[in-house]
Structure formats: C-alpha cells, structure tokens
Write a structure and sequence with these properties.
By secondary structure, this protein is an alpha/beta fold. Helix content is about 40%, strand content about 20%. Helix 2 crosses helix 4. The N and C termini lie far apart (about 40 Å). Bound molecules: uridine-5'-diphosphate.
C-alpha cells in the first residue's frame, strides 16, 4: 500500500522542474543588489516544493548586479561585460545556496565557468545525481558564453536535466498581449504557443530561449513570484499562470 508521501508524489504533476528567476527578483524594493529577507522568502518557497518530493534546479539571473549590455553601452568590451554578468549570477547563486542551507536544504552551486574553490563545475551526470538525492542544484554563470542570457541557460539546463517544465517567476501573473500595468484591457493567455510568443514578440523569455524550449517540447510556466499560493500552488497547478507550449485546441 502506498504511504502518504507516495500518494502526494503521485498527485503531483511534476517530478523534476527548473525554477528561473531574474536577479532583480532578489533585490526586493531596493534598486540594486541583494535583499536578504527576499532571498530567504524565495528559499522557503523552494524548500516547500522540494518537501513535496519534487526535484528542483534553479537558474538565477544577474541583472540586480550587472548586465553585459549595460557595460557595453558604457564603452566596455562586450564579451568582458558579459563575463562580469555571468560572475554576478554566481554571486546570486551563492546567496541563494546560503539561504537554502540555512533552511535545511542541501544545495549545490554548479558553474558553467569552472571556479573550483567556490562551487562545482558543470558535469551533467553529477548534477543529475544531486537531483536524485534530493539536493537543489543552482546552475550559475549562465551558459558560460557571452552573447547569451540566463533565460537561454535555463532552457539549456532544463533540457539537459530532462525537467518536465521551466517555472519562470516574474512580477506579473502570466503572459498578456500587452503590459497589464499600463493597459487595463490587456488580454491574458492561459496557454500560448511558442510560435505565437515569437511572432507577437512577447517578452516572456528571449527568442533563443523560446526556440530551444520549442525544439525540446519543454513547457514554460509563467507565474508571479507574489502568487497567493506561492510556487507550491503553481507547481500543483493551482492559481493563475500561463503555459507556453502545446495548447489543447
Ligand atoms: N550572461 C552571458 N551569458 C549567459 C548568461 C548570462 O553573457 O549565458 C551575462 C549577460 O551579460 C547578462 C548577465 O550575464 O546580461 C546577467 O544575466 P541576465 O541578463 O540573463 O540576468 P537577469 O535579467 O535574468 O537578471
């Protein structure tokens, strides 16, 4: 007979997911950097999902600290600026690891750019093993290549880890045809195809990330990080969110 935890697991839609958040999600009301209570709150949400038996990977952006495009706009060589952006993501990953471990969640930071004294290098099979053991894996330093974003890194790692979905936490509760903050008549999508996101040029994720998700048939669930039921609710399919992917006719 199935015990209680097994029945909860079988009721879950997902066995393994990737959570993508921007660096800005960690800065709270500040204009820059890290806001520790906000980092702790997100860590608690991740713990709640992990405690349900869902395996979790994370990719965190670096925009709260440095963006390559900003640096190059100020005259810095673009690839150097992008490497600085990638290093910013490592700082955010370490902050999240610290918060998760304080909450009792075993966590590994895994960097696309080797920095052995700081975190693990990316080795796919090793990362899979961490997930199987219930550890949260935070993939840092993006793809390790300039001219990409952490959205593409999220899609790449989710595909490599065979995640069933990417959960993209944002400041809005899903995808609209225009900005709901400025247009009260903006139309909300329960589900939208990859192609429509691309042709309408909706700012869900950058185009290379959407194209990679489409090739791998990887759904992207767009939800608000302030959702009343939190990440746990959205992972269970409750509350408001948009699915980017194959929609029922
Ligand atoms: N970046 C990069 N390659 C990658 C991922 C990130 O060069 O594969 C750099 C890029 O400069 C980017 C910065 O890291 O601006 C921070 O990432 P991103 O802008 O995606 O962060 P977010 O907007 O999600 O906070």
């Amino acid at each position: 007979m199935a015990d209680a935890s097994t029945s909860v697991e079988s009721a879950l839609r997902y066995k393994r997911v990737l959570l993508k958040i921007s660096g800005e999600a960690l800065m709270g009301d500040q204009g820059y950097g890290l806001h520790p209570p906000t980092v702790d709150r997100i860590a608690d949400e991740v713990k709640s999902v992990r405690d349900l038996g869902v395996e979790i990977c994370m990719v965190i952006g670096g925009g709260n600290i440095f963006r390559g495009l900003q640096g190059s706009a100020q005259g810095m060589e673009r690839t150097t600026a992008d490497y600085m952006g990638m290093l910013a993501t490592v700082m955010n990953a370490l902050a999240m690891q610290s918060a998760l471990e304080a909450a009792g969640v075993y966590t590994r930071v895994i960097s696309a750019i080797p920095m052995d004294q700081v975190c693990e290098p990316y080795i796919r099979r090793r990362a899979v093993r961490h997930l199987e053991k219930g550890r949260v894996c935070i993939f840092a330093a993006g793809t390790g290549n300039p001219f990409f974003t952490t959205d593409t890194a999220a899609t790449l790692r989710a595909s490599e880890m065979r995640c069933q979905a990417i959960f993209k936490g944002t400041q809005v509760d899903g995808v609209y045809d225009s900005d709901p903050k400025t247009n009260p008549d903006a139309k909300f999508f329960d589900c939208i195809s990859y192609d429509e996101v691309l042709t309408r040029n909706l700012k869900v994720m950058d185009a290379s990330a959407i194209a990679l998700a489409r090739e791998n048939n990887l759904p992207i669930i767009v939800f608000s990080l302030d959702a009343p039921d939190g990440l746990v609710g959205v992972v269970k399919g409750a509350g408001k969110y948009t699915t980017v992917g194959a929609c029922a006719a």
